[in-house]
Amino acid sequence: MPMNRICEMTGAEFPLFAFSHCRDVVAAVSKAGGFGVLGATRFSPDQLEEELAWIDAHVDGAPYGVDVLVPEVVDPRVRELADNKSRAAVIDPSYQGFVNSVLGEYGIAPEADLPILRERMGITPENGLALMEVAFRHPIRLIANALGIAPPAMIKEGKQRGVPVAALVGAKEHAIRQAEAGVDIIVAQGTEAGGHCGEVSTLVLIPEVVRELARAGHDFPVLAAGGIMTGGQMAGMMAAGAQGAWTGSIWLATPEAETSDAFREKMVAARSRDTVRSRSRTGKPARQLGTPWHAAWDAPEGPGTLPMPLMGMVSEPAFARIEREAAAGNAGARELVSYFVGQGVGLVEQVRSSRQVVQDFREEFIDAVSGLMAAMDTQ
Fold first, then answer.
1. Measuring CA to CA, which residue among 224, 213, 219 is closest to residue 170?
2. Where are the alpha helices (DSSP H) in 225-353?
């Protein structure tokens, strides 16, 4: 396809951006002509250095990027807590008791104490900035931020290094704020998306953001995100004003992904309405495959969720236990297996390689555009 602005800025051959926590997906997508973006939040700085060094050695010079989370707003209850030990100390023991009660109903043995996550793990401004510093030591062609305005340090470093800075938004007002802060690319993400998301649908959000940016005099390329699982959907969003697609859920059903066999099987079987937007994993609204875990935490009689990053300190060790038990054959644990995934999960029918997904997107995109052109020719 002809080079568009996003491709010119990032070096992508085809403007299909693939967000993944798995380095293998990132490398495979970029080598296939798309643009892999490594989600860095789950790593420590040392681990991220190792992951990016691996990508550098395996991507064959193809462009790739990194996504970090630097929260703009920190809950006042955790603002002064500097490390995971101090954060764990303020979590009431009743939360671990509730975890044990939920997991116990599905045959998972209780743990007496809350496991302490490794230092610097968690979605905090400090961790996000540390990961950003690591990312900029590598030949990335894009850095992205979510959960608020991209930090000044990221924008400054990006401009100095010639690396475009992208920002994820869920509302048109957020897009204007990001543009005024100096980002280069807006990723407009609808509520259909997996992970942290807003409340406006992708179909409404894309033209709304494109129009609002133009009215404000901002000439920014926009990537469409949220529920995009096919090349036809990508073409539709580009017809609405986007310059490409930012995708995530579709890559979870690839053999290269970090997801377990149990989760991939549940993805293939899931319907689009099987996802929930819940605070019960991170402390902020995030879409994921719904399970009894989410029902228990979101119920009126539940204990309520904790702010970020405390909720993740409670939930992530629990989900690690769930995955271990499910892999060992515990059928009850399998019912609790979940991950961040969007409503597009209903379009997943089989496990495909990352390279095949890119190829399918290309073909579907071309078919959709050709169909539109043919329809115009008949007028």
1. 224
2. 231-239, 261-269, 292-298, 310-327, 331-336
Domain count, the chain: 2
**Composition of the chain by helix, strand, coil, percent to 5:** 45, 15, 40
3-class DSSP state of 188: strand
Q: How far apart are CA 280 and CA 297, in angstroms?
A: 6
Same domain, 245 and 267: no
pTM for the whole thing?
Answer: 0.91
Please answer whether residues 243 and 6 qualify as being in contact, where contact means their C-beta atoms are separated by less than 8 angstroms.
Answer: yes
How far is the C-alpha of 104 from the C-alpha of 112, rounded, in Å?
13
**Claim to verify: residue 176 and residue 101 sit in the same structural domain:** no
pLDDT tens digits for 316-359?
Answer: 899 999 999 999 999 999 999 999 999 999 999 999 999 999 99
> What does the alpha-carbon distance between residue 124 and residue 310 come to, in Å, rounded to a whole number?
10
Which residue segment(s) compose the domain that 281 sits in?
89-116+259-348
